[in-house]
C-alpha cells in the first residue's frame, strides 16, 4: 500500500521530485488512478488550502505546493484522459477577469487551488466580455463560472454577465460566483450572484459545496 | 536621488480610513492627511475604493469628494493624488480642489491603456496642469484594445506612447509624468512581472528621450502573502534594487519606514538572487520560473525569521 500520508506531506512541503516518485511508485503497485489522485494529491492540497486559509502557510508556499501538485498531475493526467468516462473531474469551473480589467493574480491563485481540489479549470483570461463567459460555459459544460475584478469601475460588469446568463436557459444550472478586492458578499447578493469567494481557499470550499449539492 | 513617498493611508484597506469612510468623518481623514504630511509624504493618495469589508459605489465616492477634498486641504498643502480609473471621479476631484492651497501640482492616478476615457483624462491633465501616473503594465494592442504587458519592450513602447501624447497634447514635461512599471507579489509572480518592471525602468534609463521621467510602484503589493515579520524588510530590499533601476517614488505606508535597505544588507543580495531565479530560462514558462522564485522567497523568509529568533 503506498504511503499516501508521506505523499501528502511531500506535496505540502512542495517537494515535486518526491511527489513524482511516490506517484510513480503507487501506479507501479497497480493502485487505481482515482485513489492516487484523491488520497495522494487532492488530500494533500486540501491541507495546503486549509493552512493557507488560517495563515499557517504563506502564498509562496502555496505556489510551491501547487508546483508539486502539477508534477504529480502530469503523470496522472494521461491516464485520466485515456479513461475519462471513469474519471470525471469533481466539477468544471470557468474562470475569468471581467471586461475592462487586466488584473488576475487572485484569479490565478483560485485556479491553482481549484485544480488542486480536482476541478477541471478553464481559465479564459483577463478583460473578458459576457460572450466569452457564456461561450466557455457552454463549450466546456461548466458547473461554475467564476468572475474576478479588481477595479471599482469594472465590478459592475459582473452584473452584466450575470444578467446575460439569465437569457440562456440551457445554462440555468451554472452557478455564477464572484471575487476580487473591491467585491463583497453584499455586492454579490445585490447583483444576483450565486456565491462570493473572499479568498482562494474559501472559493474552493464554495465550489465543493455547489458540487456536493448537485 | 531620494525616494519620494506618496502616502497611501487614505484607502479603505486600512482600518482608520475605513472607519472614516463609514462615518464620512472628515476629521478622521484630516488626521490621516496630517500624519502623512508630517512624515514627509511628497503627495497624499486619495483612494476611496470599496474593499471586501466595506462596499463603496462609484457615485458615493464622487458625492463625497466635494466634502473630503477641502477638508484635507484645510490641514495640509501637500499635493493630493487622486486614485481612481474613471474620468468622472477625476473631474469631481479637480472641481473640488483649490490649487491656491497646494504646493506643487496634484496627481491624476492613473492613465492606462485599458481606460475607456483616456482622451478626456489627457484633456483634464492639460486643462488643469496636473501631474499624472501612467501604468506601463498594460499595452495598446494593434487594431485597438488593450492587454497585459508581459515584456519590458512592450512596457517601454507603452511609456513612449503615453509620453508622446502627454507632451504633445497636454503640454506636459517629463517631470510631470510618473510611470508605474508594474509590481506583483514576489511570492506569486507567475508572469515575471517584478523583473519586467525593473527591466522597464532600466530600458527607460537608456532612452535619452525619457530622461527626467519618474517611476513609482504600489509597494504594499510586493510582500503580499509573506510572513508578517519580514514584509517590511522585503519591501525595503526591493526598494534598494528598484532605486538602482531608477525608482524615485513609491505609493507606500509612511508609518512603515519605507526606505531602501543599505546596499550591503544581506537581504538585498538574497532578494536579487531570488528575482534572478525568477527569470524563465530557454524552454521554460514564466510560471515555472515564478514557482522557483516563490521557493527562493520562502527560503529567504525562513532564514530571516530564524535569524531574528536567534537574535532575540
How would you portray this structure in words?
The complex is a heterodimer of chains A (214) and B (312). Chain A is of the alpha/beta class and 214 residues long. In chain A, helix 4 packs across helix 5 (105-116). Chain A has helices at 4-13, 16-28, 33-53, 59-82, 105-116, 130-139, 156-166, 185-190, 200-213, and strands at 92-98, 120-128, 144-148, 175-179, 195-197. The longest helix of chain A has 24 residues, at 59-82. Chain A starts with a helix and ends with a helix. Chain B is of the alpha/beta class and 312 residues long. Chain B has helices at residues 15-23, 26-38, 58-75, 87-96, 118-128, 152-170, 193-205, 228-245, 266-277, 286-311; strands at residues 4-7, 43-46, 80-83, 107-111, 131-135, 138-140, 146-148, 177-180, 214-218, 249-252. In chain B, the strands form 2 sheets. Chain B has an 8-stranded parallel barrel with strand order 1-2-3-4-5-8-9-10, surrounded by 4 helices. A two-stranded antiparallel sheet of chain B has the order 6-7. Chain B is globular and about 50 Å long. The two termini of chain B are 35 Å apart. The mean pLDDT of chain B is 96.
Percentage of residues in DSSP E strands of chain A: 5-15%
Record the strand order, biggest sheet of chain A.
2-1-3-4-5
Calculate the terminal CA-CA distance of chain B, rounded to whole Å: 35 Å
The number of distinct helices of chain B, counting runs of at least 4 residues, comes to 10
Multimeric status of the protein: heterodimer
Radius of gyration of chain A: 18 Å
Q: How are the SSEs placed, and which strands pair?
A:
The complex is a heterodimer of chains A (214) and B (312).
Chain A lengths: L3 H10 L2 H13 L4 H21 L5 H24 L9 E7 L6 H12 L3 E9 L1 H10 L4 E5 L7 H11 L8 E5 L5 H6 L4 E3 L2 H14 L1
Parallel strand pairs in A: 1-2, 1-3, 3-4, 4-5
Helix pairs in contact in A: 1-2, 1-3, 1-4, 2-4, 3-4, 4-5, 5-9, 6-7
Chain B lengths: L3 E4 L7 H9 L2 H13 L4 E4 L11 H18 L4 E4 L3 H10 L10 E5 L6 H11 L2 E5 L2 E3 L5 E3 L3 H19 L6 E4 L12 H13 L8 E5 L9 H18 L3 E4 L13 H12 L8 H26 L1
Parallel strand pairs in B: 1-2, 1-10, 2-3, 3-4, 4-5, 5-8, 8-9, 9-10
Antiparallel strand pairs in B: 6-7
Helix pairs in contact in B: 1-2, 2-3, 3-4, 4-5, 5-6, 6-7, 8-9, 9-10
Amino acid at each position: 500500500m503506498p504511503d499516501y500520508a508521506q505523499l501528502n506531506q511531500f506535496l505540502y512541503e512542495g517537494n515535486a521530485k518526491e511527489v513524482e516518485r511516490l506517484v510513480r511508485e503507487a501506479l507501479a503497485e497497480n493502485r487505481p488512478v482515482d485513489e492516487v489522485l484523491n488520497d495522494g494529491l487532492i488530500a494533500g492540497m486540501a491541507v495546503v488550502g486549509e493552512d493557507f486559509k488560517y495563515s499557517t502557510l504563506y502564498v509562496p508556499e502555496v505556489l510551491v505546493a501547487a508546483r508539486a501538485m502539477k508534477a504529480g498531475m502530469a503523470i496522472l493526467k494521461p491516464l485520466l484522459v485515456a479513461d475519462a468516462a471513469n474519471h470525471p473531474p469533481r466539477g468544471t469551473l470557468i474562470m475569468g477577469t471581467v471586461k475592462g480589467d487586466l488584473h488576475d493574480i487572485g484569479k490565478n491563485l483560485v485556479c491553482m487551488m481549484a485544480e488542486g481540489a480536482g476541478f477541471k479549470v478553464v481559465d479564459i483570461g483577463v478583460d473578458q466580455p459576457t460572450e466569452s463567459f457564456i461561450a466557455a460555459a457552454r463549450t466546456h459544460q461548466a458547473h461554475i463560472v467564476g468572475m474576478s475584478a479588481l477595479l471599482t469601475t469594472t465590478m459592475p460588469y459582473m452584473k452584466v454577465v450575470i444578467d446575460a446568463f439569465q437569457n440562456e436557459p440551457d445554462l440555468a444550472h451554472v452557478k455564477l460566483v464572484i471575487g476580487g478586492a473591491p467585491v463583497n458578499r453584499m455586492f454579490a447578493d445585490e447583483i444576483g450572484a450565486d456565491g462570493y469567494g473572499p479568498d482562494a481557499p474559501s472559493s474552493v470550499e464554495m465550489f465543493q459545496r455547489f458540487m456536493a449539492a448537485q | 536621488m531620494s525616494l519620494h513617498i506618496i502616502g497611501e493611508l487614505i484607502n479603505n484597506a486600512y482600518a482608520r480610513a475605513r472607519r472614516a469612510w463609514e462615518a464620512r468623518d472628515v476629521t478622521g481623514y484630516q488626521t490621516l492627511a496630517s500624519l502623512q504630511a508630517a512624515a514627509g509624504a511628497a503627495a497624499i493618495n486619495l483612494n476611496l475604493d470599496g474593499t471586501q469589508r466595506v462596499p463603496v459605489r462609484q457615485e458615493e465616492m464622487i458625492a463625497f469628494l466635494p466634502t473630503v477634498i477641502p477638508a484635507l486641504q484645510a490641514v495640509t498643502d501637500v499635493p493630493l493624488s487622486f486614485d481612481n480609473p474613471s474620468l468622472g471621479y477625476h473631474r469631481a476631484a479637480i472641481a473640488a480642489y483649490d490649487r491656491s492651497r497646494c504646493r506643487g501640482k496634484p496627481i491624476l492616478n492613473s492613465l492606462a491603456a485599458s481606460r475607456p476615457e483616456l482622451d478626456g483624462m489627457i484633456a483634464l491633465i492639460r486643462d488643469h496642469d496636473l501631474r499624472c501616473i501612467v501604468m506601463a503594465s498594460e499595452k495598446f494592442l494593434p487594431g485597438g484594445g488593450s492587454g497585459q504587458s508581459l515584456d519590458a519592450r512592450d512596457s517601454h513602447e507603452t511609456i513612449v506612447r503615453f509620453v508622446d501624447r502627454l507632451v504633445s497634447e497636454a503640454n506636459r514635461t517629463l517631470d510631470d509624468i510618473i510611470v508605474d512599471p508594474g509590481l506583483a507579489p514576489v511570492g506569486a509572480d507567475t508572469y515575471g512581472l517584478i523583473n519586467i518592471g525593473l527591466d522597464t525602468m532600466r530600458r527607460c534609463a537608456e532612452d535619452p528621450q525619457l530622461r527626467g521621467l519618474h517611476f513609482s510602484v504600489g509597494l504594499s503589493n510586493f510582500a503580499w502573502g509573506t510572513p508578517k515579520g519580514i514584509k517590511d524588510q522585503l519591501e525595503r530590499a526591493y526598494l534598494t534594487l528598484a532605486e538602482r533601476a531608477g525608482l524615485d517614488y513609491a505609493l507606500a505606508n509612511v508609518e512603515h519606514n519605507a526606505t531602501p535597505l543599505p546596499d550591503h544588507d544581506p537581504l538585498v543580495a538574497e532578494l536579487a538572487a531570488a528575482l534572478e531565479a525568477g527569470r524563465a530560462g530557454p524552454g521554460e514558462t514564466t510560471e515555472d520560473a515564478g514557482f522557483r522564485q516563490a521557493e527562493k522567497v520562502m527560503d529567504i523568509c525562513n532564514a530571516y525569521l530564524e535569524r531574528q529568533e536567534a537574535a532575540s
